[in-house]
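Action item from last meeting closed. Structure (177 res):
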């Protein structure tokens, strides 16, 4: 077995290193974007939609009260066609109020269940973010050190069979390289 490593080029490793750095940047942005999406979703359910449907319920309730008043007025006027039209409008107004009430109940249920549904994915995102933030930069640093050692090994005039200076154990596994 030969005592000398057959290193021909470190450009591929340098390209991999630079691609890894670009990947880390994009992956961090994607993780933060996903975390922000979860926060925006919570706000949308708990604040925006609940506020919208509460206001909509008030508006529809006023419309229902108006339809009830108009039906009472139509019954007093003794015009049968007018009474039937007002009854139809009253039924529609009741359905609209019931729809708003159903939406509010659903939104309150979603708000209560939001954490239970989104906590596991958020924990996974947090773990990935920690990995990208702490472990991967150490791997890039180790790769920098390995590249420097390989470049030193490839320097002209270096005695064959010598050990590459500065290459130490892999920080994630502890194994010597």
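Sequence:
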């Amino acid at each position: 077995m030969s005592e000398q490593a057959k290193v021909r080029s470190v450009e591929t490793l340098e390209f991999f290193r630079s691609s890894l750095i670009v990947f880390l940047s994009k992956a961090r942005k994607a993780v933060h974007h996903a975390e922000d999406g979860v926060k925006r979703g919570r706000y949308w359910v708990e604040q925006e939609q609940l506020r919208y449907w509460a206001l909509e319920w008030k508006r529809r309730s006023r419309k229902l009260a108006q339809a009830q008043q108009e039906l009472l007025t139509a019954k007093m006027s003794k015009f049968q066609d007018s009474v039937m039209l007002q009854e139809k409008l009253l039924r529609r107004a009741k359905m609209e109020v019931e729809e708003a009430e159903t939406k509010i109940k659903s939104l309150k249920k979603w708000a209560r269940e939001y954490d239970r549904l989104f906590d596991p994915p958020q924990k996974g995102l947090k773990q990935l973010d920690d990995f990208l933030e702490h472990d991967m930069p150490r791997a890039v640093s180790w790769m920098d050190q390995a590249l420097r050692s390989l470049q030193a090994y490839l320097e002209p005039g270096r005695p064959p069979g010598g050990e590459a200076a500065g290459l130490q154990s892999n920080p994630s596994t502890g194994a010597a390289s």
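Note appended to the action item: Residues 80-154 form the longest helix (75 residues).
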